[in-house]
Amino acid sequence: MHLRFSEKDIEDLAKQYLDRQQKEESKREFEEEAALVGLRNEILEKCVLTRDQLERVARWKSPRRASDVKKNAEDYVQAVTGFALQTPNERARIEVLTVLSGVKWATASAILHLFHKDKYPILDFRALWSVNAEVPTDYTFDFWWTYVEFCRGIADRTGSNMRTLDRALWQYSSDNQ
Fold this sequence. Notes:
mainly alpha
């Protein structure tokens, strides 16, 4: 993996993303993202998501699958997300989330990105293109972990937070792919 753009452009690309999201056609997505980011402290404190919160993440990340989240019982969602947000095992963090109805790798990565104390990127075809990675037919832990470490390295070198990097990756692909 390698960035298709200079690390020094991350902040500017992330700003372009925010400017774009605030325009009328993307206003709903921007408001959903802001609401989810607003839940971060509460979820970090409780280390668990409710079914409603999970549905909101799914609707933001994968709208077509969001209705499947309702198939999960509330206590099941809380048990699975509580485990994922508290286990020290990296593989268990991501893979356990995919047992929930309506949660595939992309949504699981968004949950960790938004609500885990550690830094995680979001799996997205645009972000993967921006780091010159092929989108696999089936995600694996090894692929995901390589991507996580790559993105953490960039964030550490540049002093960017993962949300800023994620926005920059998405924006660059949107402008150039």
